[in-house]
Amino acid sequence: PSIEYELEAPFSVEYHDAVESTNDLARERAVHGATDVAVVANEQRGSRGRLEREWSSPAGGIWISLVTRPAVAPARAPLYTLAAAVATARIAREAGVDAQIKWPNDVVVPVGDDGDYRKLAGILTEMEGETDRIDWLVVGIGINANLDASDLPDGATSVRDETGDDVDRRRFVQRLVEEFDRARGDLESVVSAWRELALTIGQRVRVERATGELVGDAVDVTETGALVLETDDGRTTVSAGDCEHLRPT
Ligand code: BTN
Predict the structure, then answer these.
(1) Which of these, 127, 133, 132, 156, lies nearest to 144 by C-alpha position?
(2) Residue with CA nearest ligand 1 atom 15
(3) Where are the domains positioned within the chain?
(4) Residue 230 and residue 219: Cα distance in Å, rounded?
(5) In what helix (H) or strand (E) does residue 195 lie, and over which residues does it extend?
(6) What region holds the BPL/LPL catalytic domain (predicted)?
(7) What's the ipTM?
(8) Is the Cβ atom of 55 under 6 angstroms away from ligand 1?
(9) What is the mean pLDDT of each run of 10 residues along the chain (249 residues)?
(10) Four-way CATH pick for 12-197: 3.30.930.10, 3.40.47.10, 3.40.50.20, 3.20.20.60
(11) Architecture of the structural domain at 204-248
């Protein structure tokens, strides 16, 4: 494949043609002390999505996991997921895709004006650490790039389907890690950057949680990335980890 490469900055790349899951390899690297490594694959055979869901990763996508070791409290970990979503949406927009972010971590393309969308990319962040400090974070990003949406699960789209063109994956990855690097260096501005790209804010949504369902107007995100909902019973927040499904009503 044409994407066996070195990046200029700021992550070193470990490229594989086919793996089970780039997140699994990145976790191994993290456990052994690595940082600022990007594990990239052309194809994944056992890739994982949020909440133990399957994620489809045929050859032609961008499947990448970033290892970072921020010296911050675990409560701030969701900001790295938002940072990855912002970086992904920005680079997809550079490629001509009308990408927006569905809270907490889906990069989607809106369809019509009813809040409907197709999914372009997803993010799975995994971490280890003490109660007061993150040891490592693995931010896994899956982008349906040079693929036909017909080869992907229902509800998915791809850069190819949206623009009619394939992207240079090497360049896309280079830009993605640059944007992620910039965002992690300026976490304070991640939430406002996220708001600018958010499809969810302003929508009336139904959130499914293990502890029950919530319906309300999505009005904002907090400084740690939780969703602020205006429900009939007042204002409440939902953290990303508690959200099993979010749908426009
Ligand atoms: C989701 O939307 O549920 C998250 C999907 C995350 C997929 C990416 S692809 C690269 C990395 N490796 C994995 O096994 N998963 C993530």
Answers:
(1) 156
(2) 48
(3) 12-197, 204-248
(4) 7
(5) helix 190-197
(6) 1-188
(7) 0.99
(8) yes
(9) 63 94 97 96 95 92 97 90 96 97 93 91 94 95 97 96 96 95 92 92 93 95 91 94 90
(10) 3.30.930.10
(11) Roll (2.30)
